[in-house]
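Priority: medium. Attachment 1 of 2:
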């Protein structure tokens, strides 16, 4: 039985807010103390994603990411009428989370904003690649007999942590429009904000295409 929409939306608001508190919050804490390091911030993102999947996945799917919601919809695995409410809930959650992070941030902090290190063009390409791989992993591990169990959460969260570890210094490794728009809204820094909306959407669309290609099978009578 499908969970009632209001329960799903509450889970998405809460989940996205918590993602911001412990994800971008880790970046803000590291700005002030240098206690976590880049690896620590990447680990924080991976850990919070694991906790959200295990804690809220049975309620809303724990998308906490407009790009993921759009990806599931395009893949035919999410109802169209829920897309806009989910995206709105995620954006509200990101704003709430960033507001909470601002309470512990120093004056002038970017609140964990995602900013290109070497120009918008490179950032766009990197964010497309990162989001493509994240969405492809999500689609593969949530299909068939893989879709239940702790290993799903571990695989997705490990992907997030790995991509944050490698891509973070170049783009902030957002892969999530809500994650980028929350700090932008609260800090007022909209530098290359379009990249962090357009690139994740392009990435998930590419992932859905590749996922479908991976599902194609040669008819038995033409098999080699």
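Attachment 2 of 2:
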């Amino acid at each position: 039985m499908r969970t009632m929409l209001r329960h799903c939306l509450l889970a998405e608001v809460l989940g996205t807010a918590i993602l911001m508190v412990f994800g971008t919050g880790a970046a803000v804490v590291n700005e002030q103390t240098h206690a976590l390091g880049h690896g620590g911030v990447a680990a924080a993102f991976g850990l919070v994603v694991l906790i959200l999947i295990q804690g809220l996945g049975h309620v809303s799917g724990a998308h906490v990411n407009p790009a993921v919601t759009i990806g599931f919809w395009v893949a035919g695995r999410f109802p169209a009428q829920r897309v806009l409410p989910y995206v709105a809930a995620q954006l509200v959650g990101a704003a709430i989370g960033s507001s909470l992070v601002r309470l512990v941030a120093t004056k002038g902090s970017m609140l964990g904003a995602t900013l290109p290190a070497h120009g918008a063009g490179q950032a766009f390409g990197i964010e497309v690649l990162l989001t493509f791989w994240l969405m492809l992993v999500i689609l593969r591990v949530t299909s068939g007999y893989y879709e239940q169990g702790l290993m799903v959460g571990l695989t997705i969260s490990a992907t997030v942590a790995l991509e944050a570890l490698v891509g973070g210094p170049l783009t902030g490794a957002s892969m999530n429009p809500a994650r980028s728009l929350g700090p932008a809204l609260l800090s007022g820094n909209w530098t290359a904000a379009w990249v962090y909306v357009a690139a994740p959407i392009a990435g998930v669309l590419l992932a859905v295409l590749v996922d479908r290609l991976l599902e194609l099978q040669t008819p038995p009578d033409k098999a080699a």
